[in-house]
Amino acid sequence: MNSVVQPAPMRVLFDAFELAPGTGKSMGIYNYARHLLPALTEVAGPSIQFVVACNSACAADFRLAAPTVSTRILHHGVPGKFARQVWWRGRAALEAAKARAEIYFSPKGFLPYAMGLLAPRVRTVVVVHDLIPLWYRAHHPGHFGLLEEHVVARALIDSVRGAHGLIAISQATADDIKTRVGRREGVCVVPNGIPTTPPGEPPLPGPYIMAVTSRLPHKNATGVLQAYQRYRERTPHPLPMVVCGLDASSVAGVHCVSRLTDAQLHGCYAHASLLLFLPRIEGFGFPPVEAMAHGTPVICSDIPALREVTRGAATLVPLDDPDRTASAMTAVLAGSHPDAAEITGAVADFTWQKCAAGIIDVFTRLHAGAPGC
Predict the structure, then answer these.
(1) Which DSSP helix (H) or strand (E) runs through 132?
(2) What is the pLDDT of residues 344-372, one digit of tens each?
(3) For 51-129, where are the alpha helices, taking DSSP H only?
(4) Does pTM top 0.90 for this prediction?
(5) Which residues contact 284 (CB under 8 A, 6 or more apart)?
(6) Of 111, 131, 139, which Cα lies nearest the Cα of 179?
């Protein structure tokens, strides 16, 4: 009787080298990566061996008790500018070759240089969360410094053009890639998963409005505060607003929260009477989807990504129209919104397992020599 020879597992280098826990504009990517890795190992089973390149600051979140995952701590602490440059300009490619990886996977949105030269057999897959750096270059030139803006924008464009496969986290991001960079082939839409986090205690004892924003121009803090002020002006007994990501405690009725645990953040979402989220551009939009997973009504910007991910179960408002947003707040608080079951159902299939399955399909296609999508 002939025995069946099982194919050798595919080897994937999962690049977490630069990722660091904490706060700031990269936390969304960090959370994406740390939730995705366990789902990838669960869905792939023994068919894929993951080699995780990381640093000692993030190792605890990327060291899994799974036989298909090996973790390599390649830097002590969070890498500084010099270590990051070394990584991007050659070390990443050398580590991919050393790991005998067939796939290099970047959850961060950038492709290291020299991959084709130093690891020519490795297929590269990059997750593109958004093209917000290019939006800043067009709408707020020099906001992060002209040199940094140029370097980041150039690296992003090169990554989008150079990776063998791109994962766009929404159709809106895929469309943006086509419009801003011109790439049409090899772009696969694989939406994010969202965590199933039990909510903690509410931040206030009574009803409140929840808002997520920041001082970054694309998060539109001014629009959030103006809309809330208009709402207060026309409401005899306005609800307070809990704001996450911004110090605006001097504004009447506003209570600010920061450095929340996952349970505390989801407590804010779950117990809110509504979530207000008014960014100018997003690649996906975790806050409204996470709030909707708890059945919380959402009011958000009428922009492509948020139209897509809220799936008709949120109230969409135009940018820079605080009066219409205030009217929408009044209507939603009066009960003009889908019921909790419909809101929750609209986002029920945003799971990490489904996200992982989509990414593994891209790995498998590229490994077989087929186009990623």
Answers:
(1) helix 132-139
(2) 999 999 999 999 999 999 999 999 988 77
(3) 59-62, 81-86, 92-98, 115-118
(4) yes
(5) 129, 130, 169, 170, 173, 191, 192, 305, 309
(6) 131
